[in-house]
Amino acid sequence: MGGRTSCSLRVAWDEGFTSYDFGPQHPMAPIRVELAMALTRELGILDTPGVELLDVEPASDELLSLVHSPAYIEAVKQAGRTLEPNDEHMLGTADNPVFPDMHDAAALISGASVAAAESVWTGRSAHAANVAGGLHHAMRDNAWGFCVYNDPALAIAWLLEQGAKRIAYVDVDVHHGDGVQNAFYDDPRVLTISLHESPTTLFPGTGMSGETGGPGAEGYAVNVPLPAGTGDEGWHRAFQAVVPPLLHEFQPEILVSQQGCDTHALDPLANLTLSVDGQRRAYQELHQLAQKTAGGRWLLFGGGGYGLVQVVPRAWTHLLGEAAGVPVDPDAETPQSWRDFVRKRTGELAPLYMTDGREVSFTPFEEGYDPGKPLDRSIHATRTAVFPSHGIDPTL
């Protein structure tokens, strides 16, 4: 592992998280989180001074109702008991099959994310993480995109209830963070920023640059749709052109981030081409932005990611190592004990190293806008749409 900086981190983990399971044919298999936490353990990250596991309990109905309607919560409970679909609430679709006790599993993950938020808000830790969370698509009245309850939105809503005035949410999942955006679209206390594959080529079909917030909150929903095929260089060009200027201006009390790692080239459900190294650099950038703009307060979640063995465990181990202040050397080998565990649990061969062997570099957008490139047109459209609302010149 690399150099140590002073970071306190609480990590939410409970074996019950793996019961959030849509079945053997579904791409969102809980093994991905199990393997990620196993790799994190094997590399000693959870034994780092200042790192503790967080006690978690399921979110109550009252807590869930900060984001979801009572009728929807009841429908989720009922579906988990009867295993009957509910068309009105989109339970029982191909994306969101019903499964036994689905309310209990989803409420546990949501409760863990709120516990993580509480740890940061009260100052018990500078950072807190729930990699099983980040279920950013769920809407007030329906399941959507593999997500039953929207734990990031719930954590943010809880923080607002405690008196938070400025929360920034940065979503780097390959899919638009639509559920979180919808929850706070009219609320200027919450700045939502989502970098994602263009909705013209990927679910959920929203997240164009022109979606900028409701009345009184114009410029507080920020979307950067990226052309299919965008890799490390283009992704970081877009990130740096949009996210740091907004966070420096907004000065959030807490930075909340969702680190879906389905931006990877090997992800079977999407079309961006990032490497683990590019993702690792994104985590470094978010950590630095938390330090520089949010007083070091960082609440971080997992999200999507369907390269169950080759991608998710390494990506989120890098994430937790970064948050713990003990970044994992990308050239490090994966532990043999972990590889054996992977083989036993999945029958697959685990990756041998923590790197994809990529050097990540990019040319800053400020050094020249090329209107002939779709990526640059997207960056330009986003900056033009939202920067003036924050007093930032989009042409600089």
- Domains, number: 1
What is the C-level CATH assignment? Alpha Beta
Structural class by helix and strand composition? alpha/beta
C-alpha geometry:
globular
> Segments where pLDDT lies below 50 for 5+ residues?
1-5
Count of alpha/pi helices: 11
The number of strands is 8
Q: What is the CA-atom radius of gyration, in angstroms?
A: 19 Å
For the record, what is the CATH homologous superfamily label? Histone deacetylase domain
Give the SSE string: EHEHHHEHEHEEHEHEHHH
CATH architecture: 3-Layer(aba) Sandwich
Spatially, the strands of the biggest sheet line up as 2-1-3-8-7-4-5-6
Mean pLDDT over the full residue set: 97
Our estimate of the beta-strand percent is 5-15%
Span between termini:
38 Å
Largest sheet: 8 strands, parallel
Q: Which fold does the CATH topology refer to?
A: Arginase, Chain A
